[in-house]
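Before relying on records like the one below, remember that each one covers exactly one chain. Contacts with other chains, cofactors or solvent are not represented anywhere in the record.
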Amino acid sequence: MTRNTAEDSVLIDIDGPVAIVTLNRPKSLNALSTGMLERLEACFVELQGRSTVQVAILTGAGRAFCAGADLDELAASPDVLQAPDEAIGTGHKRFGMGVFDRPVIGAINGVAVTGGLELALCCDIRIASTNARFADTHSRVGVIPGGRLTALLPRLIGIGRAKEMCLSARMIDAATADRWGLVNRVVEPDELMPACLNLARKIAAVEPSYLRTYNRLIDENFDGTYREAVDNEHIRSRDANQVFSHEELDVSSVIESRRR
């Protein structure tokens, strides 16, 4: 388990193959400061170096997931949350998650607004508490997002709903987010972390090198056209299936589970 201090803006707790990453500025609703962004990236760099960690869960301390940018910093430096130049052309995952090649589950415990919505979108899977709320308020302050929001949100909920959220700054509740496909499912607040941990452990049970390969393949094909995705899958399947043995994939247990 990583040692955290009370002053850390992001905490890491490791339980076997699962890491819990917690945004830890509850008094400011976990607003994203420069220091917090740097700490968040450092946490995922650390997790990437831990071969025993197979899945990460990202959540927020207190009653919010993340309320977006630190407004004091944003006023002083409007480009604080813009993507770096080196991200262009890379399909770059923001907020440090791009360095971590395993799944990230977003445990959305409260409001996820603007930069916080972007942070949630950059998770691979999102499970929301009934207390969760989602909004994009970039239009209210005249800032164009730089955290993949306009790339990811329309793909998840459709272009019409994305424009409704982004251009009107409409807040949607957890039930609407679930109905629109923004989150995988909604649970009661006290069930949020158990549900995320249960899912994380099921994912972590997959053979590690296979998990990373399959996770990467889904990301690659999400970014391409249908034809590109099909061709890429054929290539990856051919190459990977020469690497993974039946023993590694435990085919016998799969066959047995189908019989049940």
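Residues 208-259 form one domain.
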